[in-house]
Every structure is written in C-alpha cells, then in structure tokens.
Amino acid sequence: MCGLLTYISATASANSVLSGISGALTTLHHRGPDATGINVVGHDVVMGFKRLSIIDVENSDQPLEYSDGRYAITFNGEIYNYVELREELTAQGATFRTKGDTEVIVAAYHHWGTAAVKRLRGMFAFVIWDRLERVAFGARDPFGIKPLFHLMTGHGVFFASEKKALLPFCSWGDDTLDHASLSHYLTLQYVPEPATLHRQIGRIGSGESFTYRPNGPDSGMATRRYWRPEFRPIPQGDPELLYGRIRDALRESVRIHMRSDVPVGAFLSSGIDSTAVVALAREVNPDILTFTASLEVDGYSELPVAEESARHLGVTMHPVPVDAQMMMDALPRIIWHLDEPVADPALVPLYYVARKAREHVTVALSGEGSDEFFAGYRVYREPLSLKPVTGLPPGVQRGLRAVSKAIPRGVKGKSFLERGTTPIQQRYYGNARMYTEQEKSVLLKQYDPSVSHTDVTGPVYAEAAHLGDVEKMQYVDLYTWLRGDILVKADRMSMANSLEVRVPFLDYAVFDVASCVPAELKLPPRSAETKYALRRALEGVVPPQIVNRVKLGFPTPIRVWLRGEMHEWALHVLDSSKAGHLIDIDYVRRLLNEHRKGAADHSRKIWTVLVFCLWYEIFVSGSLDPRP
Questions:
Q1: pLDDT at 449 over 60
Q2: Which of 94, 180, 490, 532 is deepest in the core (most CB within 10 A)?
Q3: Where would I find the beta strands (DSSP E) of 255-336?
Q4: Could you tell me the end-to-end alpha-carbon distance of the chain, in angstroms, rounded to an integer?
Q5: Strands 135-140 and 201-203
Q6: How far is C-alpha 52 from the chain's CA centre?
Q7: Is the peptide bond prior to 63 cis by the omega test (within 30 degrees of 0)?
C-alpha cells in the first residue's frame, strides 16, 4: 500500500514541476513512510512514489522500470495472484529482477497489452508509461478499493493517490468549488464519483482503465470500463451446494489475502462479516491479532460480543476505547486525510482502531463488501414489504398515490403508500439520506433545483434495468455507497496510520458466487434475516451466537454526544465557520437546539454540516491546519 504522484507533460520538459512533485509527495508520507522515489523518465514524465513495504520488502522500490527502461510504473495496492501470474509470464519468456507484484503488472502489460488488467486479482491503482509508444496506461481495481485522482492542465496531466497532492498544481478557492457535488454531499453524506468538490480534479472510476497520449492525432485521455458487476440470480436445486460454494470462495479469498512479507492482523466487530474473516484467517495463522473499537455508551458498544467471538475462536483481541473527546480531537485531522468530506461518524473509531493495529501489524483484514454482495442491509427488504402495492396495476397505484397525499403527515400508512407508489429509481439512492431537496433549498445559499440525486443514480439504474429490485439496489450501492463511503473510509483511515487494509469479500471469485444467489436465499420472504445464504454458509465457521445476529453497523453515539459532551464544540464549529455564504448556519443552529432538547434526532444532519464546515476551513479558507 503506497502513494503515487505522476505527471506527464504534453508541452515541455517535466523538470519544471520536479520540485513541486517533491514537495507534494510529503503530503502522501502517511501512505508510504518506508521509502521515497522520484524518477524523471525521458524528459517529459515525472513519477513520484511513497512506499509502504509489504511484498518483497528488500526490493521492488518504485518507480520501477521494466524491459530495459521502456516502461516505468507507479502502483498502489496489492495483486494477490501475482505468484500465479509470474509463473505464467515466465513460461511465456518474461524475466524478472524482483519478487514483488509491481513488476508482474508491467510484465503482464508488456505481454498481454491492455487486456492484462482483467487478469489482476486484487486492489490497485497504477500508471504505466511506455517510452517507445509514448502512451500512458493505467487502471483502478473493479470495486474501487484503491483511489486514483487526476488533474488535467493545459500542459499535461497529473495522477495521484490523494487529491491533496494535486492541489499545489491548480487554483483552489470558492470559484473552483463544484456546487453540484456539494449538493450531492448534503444528500448522500459523501461526494459521488467521478467528481470531487474541486471542478478541475476528477477520479478514475472503479473498474476503469485509461490511456493518455500527450501528443499526436489521438492526444488526450480516454477511459473505458474493463469490468462491471453482473448479478445473475440462478434458481437453486440444492441450496447446500450454493452455501458450500460461498464458503469455499471466501475461504480461498482469505487465504490469498494473507500473502504478505510483514505481519497481518484483522479488525473484529460484533458482526458476521469481520468474524468470518477472522475465523478463516485463523486457519492460516492461528496467532492472528484482532482489534476492536469500544464505545462505552449503552447500545453502541460492540466490545462484549467481539470479546466472546475472540474467546470462541481462540484469538487475541486488542480493544480500543473511543470517547466523545477523542472524536472531537481527531476529526479535523481525519478530514484532512479524507480530502473530500465524508459524514460517516464511524470514521473516527476506525481511525483509532487502525492506529492501534499499526502498533502490532502492517496489514489488517476487514469485512467490507459483504453487505453489498450478499444483501446485508435491512433496506433491501423494502421491495418485499412494498409488494402489495408495487404489484398493483398502474392505474390503481396512481389512485393510491392520490390517497397518500391526502393523508396528514405522521398518520400511519402514509409513508407506506408514498413509497409503494414511487418507482424504485426515485425512491432508492443509497443507504445514507441526509437532507431532502426541500431542506436543502433552505440550507444552501446557492440552491440549484436542477441538481438531483438521480443525476448520480440514473445512469446506474439504466445499466441495471433488467434486474429485480433487490439486485438493482445492490448494483446502485456498488457504484455509490460502497465506493463513496465504505471504501473511502477504509482506505483513508488505514493509510492515515500507514496500515494496509485488505478486504477479502471484495474479490472476483467471491462476487462470482454471490452474484448467483437468488433473492429468496438472500432475503427469505418469511424471515427478517438479511444475507441469509451467507449466514447459512458460515454455520460452523463463525461462533453460533454470531450467525443470526442482527447487524449493528459500527454505530457511533453522536446522537447522545451532541446532546451532551459535544454540544458546545458543535456550536463553536458553526460559530467560527467561514462557510456561511454557502450554508445557512442559523438553520443548523436551530437543528442543534432542537436536537439538544430532544424534540427530534437531527444528529446525522448536524454532523454532515459540521464535517463540511471543518473541511472548508482546512481546504478552502485555510484557517485550520491539522496536518501531522
């Protein structure tokens, strides 16, 4: 796991940005504290790199050259099948100077061309420069585990693992703020890809590759999707065979994710996902260490269940206490690491868990991706509960829609009829729903009614038109919630502590079997369970008390703390904010006052604005500098 910063000039010598690259690399030090490399390739390409040594520790420094200097590569991530690919490439005549996975990527590109990216099993973002053909080729992994930002200028293009490394090479201020992305953030609690809050900076999408030619008739950058998830539910004759396939795929994925030349640990919560990963990792390393957040507020701590699981599995667990003061202390630095605001309070305990893990290991396994693959969110049951309405003829639905409008707000049945008569494309846009359009019209000083969440989800729904409603929701989450919140959280909080996090659920082979699970085995109609097939597959693998446990979802008690310990701090953030020309701060103060009195739970809405205010002070006004 590392940080890359590459510049390809289209107009002049790259030496003009050499000192800037060197300075910008320091902002990526946390991603790779073990080594720094800067190479000028030819006269018009600069490749910078910060390395966290995981595989082939003594060698494989980057930027790495291949084929007598024809190619140069910067690569962030891990290729788990690099051993098998190396053997195949060697049989085809490839030679290797290192024992790492970086050289395997560039050798695969040399021998197989752009099709090589489909052979890579892992998490990755890389840029390869071909000096002979004068073309750059790069890609990002299928699920978007690893980030890759780009900045196009009049003189060339920059690529970086984090947006902050690109800011020295472009203008930044209120005039470059992307107001559509801000509106989406206030709805979704994250900035959806491929945009950022900076109009000049974008992101390579998950499952995308690109080519960039600085000169010639085909000059410029072109991207393409080399992979996209295909849900193909198959009726099952014998469900036990399916459960066995799930178990085998996950066991093999965990095994291959354990490949490392440095110590590997794991995060452990009270849920089935991380517990399964730990149980299967223990088969490879019985002495694996685990790490768990402890939030000492009734109803929020996962520690007691995690401790019981650790005892059952016979693994050592390190609890990490997190309180309100720790939340307030760490949040500005966390937002600096994020680059873009993400209003998920779970970021903070994850930051502290990663920090504790780094004291003992360099790599940690985690359970992200299970809910999107196997239908783990309770909201996925909504199509089943709404079927009495959605199954009615269109004319009847229109009549019920009219009836719902006549029912007073708060009366039982109104919401059910509203949701049941609203097409799923308009009804579902992900797990987080912060501010409604009506609320944003008050909150935003520059509200644009033409900006809608359907701008983000519309193209995704178009690709999923042939799927059932549950699979549509899963597909939408893979392209929104998973890569916008879950994976940003995992990457930035681990890398903030120079820790590599690996996610065995987010694997080609695991998705191949997950994609075949029919809806009735994901969400049985006569049961309240989610990810039913996965739970059945893991019976006998995870402790019995975990198999059917209701998902807790790594909760953080900001609802409680914003009424108590964090109230004055929240007021101070609002009072000192320089973003008052963008956000109606008085409106948010009223929400905070109502929340403290217990009139309503506005905690997530308040938190969303607090995170943006701090982000604005760090990256726009410059009045706050939390850098380490």
A1: yes
A2: 490
A3: 264-267, 289-294, 316-321
A4: 20
A5: unpaired
A6: 20
A7: yes
For residues 617 and 333, the answer to whether their CB atoms sit within 8 Å is no
Annotation marks residue 2 as catalytic: yes
> Residues 5-31: pLDDT tens digits?
999 999 878 888 989 999 999 999 999
* Cβ-based neighbour number of residue 71 at 10 Å: 23
SS3 at position 419: helix
What's the gap between Cα 216 and its chain centre?
36
Name the superfamily (CATH) of residues 239-325+339-376+479-547.
HUPs (3.40.50.620)
Give the integer Cα–Cα distance in Å for 477 and 456.
11
**615: closest CA among 587, 586, 573, 562?**
573
Alpha-carbon distance of 507 to 457, in angstroms, equals 24
Burial state string for 236-271 with b = 16 or more CB within 10 A and e = fewer than 16: beebeebbebbbebbbebbebbbbbeeebbbbbbbb
Task: Report whether the peptide linkage leading into residue 543 is cis, meaning its omega lies within 30 degrees of zero.
Answer: no
pLDDT in tens, 540-568: 999 988 888 776 655 789 999 999 999 99
d(CA 502, CA 145): 9
Are 92 and 99 spatial neighbours (Cβ–Cβ below 8 Å)? no
Tell me which of 2, 170, 516, 613 is the catalytic residue.
2
Q: How many CA atoms lie within 13 A of 2 on its CB side?
A: 30
State the architecture of 2-225 in CATH terms. Answer: 4-Layer Sandwich (3.60)
Q: In whole angstroms, give the CA distance from residue 24 to residue 48.
A: 9
What tens digit of pLDDT does each residue of 501-531 get? 999 999 999 999 999 999 999 999 878 889 9
Pair of tokens at residue 505: 């659920």
Residue-by-residue DSSP string for 500-520? EEE-TTSSHHHHHHHTT--HH
What is the pTM (predicted TM-score) of this model? 0.95
178-206: average pLDDT: 97
Q: Which residues are annotated as a binding site for ATP?
A: 366-367
Query: Can you give the residue ranges of every domain in the chain?
Result: 2-225, 239-325+339-376+479-547, 558-621
Q: What secondary structure does DSSP assign to 555-624, as a single string?
A: ---HHHHTTTTTHHHHHHHHHT-S-TTTB-HHHHHHHHHHHHHTS---HHHHHHHHHHHHHHIIIII---
Instruction: Give 356's contacts (C-beta < 8 A, 6+ positions apart).
Output: 291, 318, 320
Binding residues for L-glutamine: 101
